[in-house]
Amino acid sequence: MVNIRKARVEDALQIAIVNVYTWKTQYSGLMPEDVIDNRVANVEQMAMKNKQRIIDDDNYIVAEVDGTIVGFTRYAKSTYKDYENAGEIFALYLLKGFNGKGIGRKLFEAAKDELKRAGYNKMIIKCLKGNPTLDFYKYMGGKVIGEDKMIIDNAVLEEDVLMYNI
After folding, report:
1. What are 105-141's pLDDT values in tens digits?
2. In this structure, are residues 37 and 152 in contact, taking their beta carbons and an 8 Å threshold?
3. DSSP assignment of 72-96, as one string?
4. Confidence class of residue 142 from pLDDT cuts 50, 70 and 90?
């Protein structure tokens, strides 16, 4: 059985592990391998960053199966320059093997509900170009409204930007 709940400080390392594992399994071939390997090598620093964000912002939701975190989402006010008054899901990751069970949808809906409670009526998600998860985001009602770029470890990565009415 899946338990969807707000993250706790002690979840920070498991969240980081889910993050690096999904980058390794989902993004290989979509971005330089050294960017992914650097993320894996810095999992401890990611855990510390997660811990601080959980304390400061309380904006993580986790999916837990048998006491182990198998997915998470992080959301807040959007940083997308064209829609600064929207909420945004910054991360939604699910371990390979747990796809197709409705867990991603539950995480998505939980983050969307939190953003709606915070007063947003629009929501943004950015999806790395070539990521098959784009189909999921479209299925959840997103419309591609543009493109954006992010820079990670000197690599310029292109993203599709999706908009939702919430």
Report:
1. 999 999 999 999 999 999 999 999 999 999 999 999 9
2. no
3. EEEEEE---TT-TTSEEEEEEEE-T
4. very high
The domain segmentation of the chain, as residue ranges, is 2-165
Distance separating alpha carbons of residues 166 and 163, to the nearest angstrom: 10
Name 116's Cβ contacts closer than 8 Å, sequence gap at least 6: 87, 166
Token pair, residue 109, equals 């809906």
- At the topology level, CATH places domain 2-165 in Aminopeptidase (3.40.630)
- How far apart (Å, rounded) are the C-alpha atoms in residues 90 and 68? 22
Which residue in the block uniquely carries the two structure tokens 């390794």? 24
28/23 Cα distance (integer angstroms): 7
Cα 110 to Cα 92: distance, rounded to the nearest angstrom: 11
Phi, psi of 98 (to 5 degrees): -110, 5
